[in-house]
Fold this sequence. Notes:
The structure is a homodimer. By secondary structure, chain A is mostly helical. In chain A, about 60% of the residues lie in helices and about 0% in strands. In chain A, helix 2 (about 50-55) crosses helix 3 and helix 4 (about 70-90) packs antiparallel against helix 5. Chain A is elongated and about 60 Å long. The interface of A and B includes residues 136, 138, 142 and 174 of A. The structure holds a DNA duplex (30 and 30 nucleotides).
Amino acid sequence: MTTARTPAGAAPSRGRRAGRSAGDERETAILATAERLLRQRAFGDISIDDLARGAGISRPTFYFYFPSKDAVLLTLLDRVTEEADAAAGGVFDRLAEDPRAHWRELIARFHATFGGHRDVVLACAQVRGTNAEVRRLWAEVLERWVRAVQAAIETERARGAAPDGLPARDLSIALNSMNERVWYATFAGDGPAVAERDVVDVLLDVWLTAIYRTTTPPVMPSAGTP
Amino acid sequence: MTTARTPAGAAPSRGRRAGRSAGDERETAILATAERLLRQRAFGDISIDDLARGAGISRPTFYFYFPSKDAVLLTLLDRVTEEADAAAGGVFDRLAEDPRAHWRELIARFHATFGGHRDVVLACAQVRGTNAEVRRLWAEVLERWVRAVQAAIETERARGAAPDGLPARDLSIALNSMNERVWYATFAGDGPAVAERDVVDVLLDVWLTAIYRTTTPPVMPSAGTP
DNA sequence: AGCTTAATCGACAGGGTGTTGAGCGGGTGT
DNA sequence: ACACCCGCTCAACACCCTGTCGATTAAGCT
């Protein structure tokens, strides 16, 4: 009822049989159509018929490849979060070398990834309210990032670079939540928003002050700024 | 096309004729039904027929009172934002007396207001993605709060209590965005969330460090902590 | 050739929205 | 007292979208 995403299975997205069968092309055609239409109108204004016709198939045939419209978006979201995870990889290990530079790098990479797929991200944010599956996946992804940042904060505190304060998990949740909402406003462009050019530095500033109480954290183990 | 909310007009919500006519009762019955059903299921799972039957009328009659399901939610949202605005009133004037206490008071009042109407707030957050009218109203409300906080930050900087840094507007947007998203997660309970009991203090901590670089800002004009 | 399986679609059922047009009852004015 | 407007009501309709069923074709294996 809530499991299947593609007919062949979710994670490694291996196609149906061995060699590239006709169905693979249809499946990617649906995905491509969804991304294209998302650039033009909101997810809610795209019908399954639009997706099917865009991929050159009939509506019932669409159901052979995806169980619902939302499942298409879920597949798209999977790709984006994988890309974001990959982009963040390794940054945490070098935090102590230069905290400001590396926190900035982390935020900047997420910004680049989300900005590069803003239509998909925006659509997900919009249906998260109505679709439990998207909500669940997003919660999972967020939980990973929250944990990673929490661990980084605790490491910085342990080496004496950051002062004690809020529970690291609560702080991590607050900062990650801020980023999500601020990016949404910036990309969506409705309501009060930070200019896209400034958003990384604005977020960075709040992160640094919340974690270190200063925008210029020390670089070596428990050493002051020279 | 996008204006009317109630048949009689929006703002002061005066009923249709002079004395309480039958229609007034129907209208409030619809609103009450919406709030009641929202406590049980998601907004998307409530049909206009549910609202109409709950108020003891037929579906076409519903359209005599509201142009759409969303318009009902919009009316509910109006009430909540008015209450929040009222709750925030006057706090900014006394900020310098004791910044920490008064920022906390501000956040706590918003928390209480939203928490007291969490079903409505959650529903609005959910349809904001699909309904332009809700999006517009929310953006308007947020803009007011962003401006008020921005002004307060500038005042604190002018009296020397807060250091210069980010443009006050950008900082205000980031902090307000954080609150919105964190409250949403806390009230919705899906995904990583701060416990409801702690959320005010967590938010306060990030606000204070971002604005003052310390969690114990000075109380008198340009005086240090004793 | 015969069997299986991937792939396809016409046609249907169901449920939701928004609109139309007709009807009813109580004030109000003359 | 009569007509008449107007607030109010709903059955019935047109429409759109979703999801499913069953029949059908094409390709591969034995």
